[in-house]
Write a structure and sequence with these properties.
Layout lengths: L1 H6 L4 E3 L4 H13 L4 E3 L7 H15 L5 E3 L15 H28 L5 E3 L1 H16 L17
Parallel strand pairs: 1-2, 3-4
Helix pairs in contact: 3-4, 4-5
Length: 153
């Protein structure tokens, strides 16, 4: 995803827990002519995630596209083996982190009508709903996804 957006002229801010891995990815992207920077954070730590997003904005400018697709952690269970603890861990990773990220970037995205989010369910739905509200008020929530149009600098 970073390569695809980078080739289209986007600056790429990468957020993940492992600083060394992030630095390797930044070097790889630089080799492809992509402007990229690393912002280490644990997406399950909401303060850490918010700080990383703020640092990315400070270093690279407004966030036009948010791609949220964490790698699975912990065991993926069959329905019969799912426990409250295993479901909570996956919810924390995939849903709460997405909501924290979207709530941080979306207000500035919709001000400039440049909102675009990708990744899994919660992130995409939150962006579509907010863009819809921005364009049509809060009265009709179905049948329209709003204007989601990324663009390079």
């Amino acid at each position: 995803m970073a390569r695809a957006f980078g080739r289209r002229g986007f600056k790429v801010g990468l957020i993940a827990r492992t600083k060394v891995r992030l630095e390797d990815l930044v070097a790889e992207l630089a080799g492809l002519g992509v402007t990229a920077a690393a912002f280490p954070a644990d997406i399950r730590d909401h303060e850490s995630l918010t700080a990383a997003l703020a640092a990315a904005e400070s270093a690279m400018g407004p966030i036009d596209v948010l791609e949220f697709s964490p790698s699975p952690t912990g065991p993926i269970t069959r329905a019969a083996g799912t426990t409250v603890a295993s479901a909570t861990a996956q919810f924390e990773l995939h849903v709460r982190g997405a909501v924290v990220a979207v709530r941080h970037v979306l207000p500035d995205m919709v001000k400039g009508f440049r909102a675009s989010c990708g990744g899994r369910g919660a992130c995409q739905c939150a962006c579509q709903s907010a863009c819809h509200d921005r364009h049509h008020g809060d009265t009709h929530r179905t049948g329209h996804s709003g204007r989601l149009s990324p663009g390079p600098d």
